[in-house]
Amino acid sequence: MRTCLTRETDMEYAGMRRRSRQEGVAAIEFSLVAMVFLIIIFATLELARIEYLTNTVMEVTRRATAAAANVSFKDTTALKAIQAEAVFRNSSGPLALGSPVTADNVMIDYLSVSKDTLDFQHMTALPSSPARNRWNCVADPNGDNCIRFVRARVCASMDGSGNCQPLPYQQLFPFFALSGWHIPVAEAIVPAGSLGYTVGSMP
Hints:
By secondary structure, this protein is of the alpha+beta class. The protein has helices at residues 2-68, 76-86, 130-139, and strands spanning 106-113, 120-122, 149-154, 157-158, 164-165, 167-168, 182-183, 186-191.
């Protein structure tokens, strides 16, 4: 009788140990699968944000050039408003879901056309007024002092020669190695419109 009870107790204990091991294995398997699943989800979200930023900054530059082509290059208040509207805001600030892109990263500059190569040239010195620019362009459309095109780019900074430094990408999830990645420099160029010139105004 005692031997039977001991044998049954041993069998029950062995079954409990077996169930305990199986539960431990199941917990490890679940944690591994959950970790892989979460990494895939986070990677998908990160890639979707990269795609969103790449496409949106192109639209930002398009909106900026379309508005700046008909606004005086001397009107800093109007240009600030154009930068804000380009990132879909009423005032200066960041692009929605697009940090670190802000209105201040929308760089607007003006281009002349080279007489020799017919290439675009960044204008370091702008005419004194839109009327003066109109006169300059009538006198020599390919002169260095004639604004022929307006350009907008999204970048970290722009030097005096018109070179644009790309913005570093700000990742959502820290466990992806994207610290060295930069947002591509988006660019849009349109022919200069009125640039704020009004008929009859004199230089």
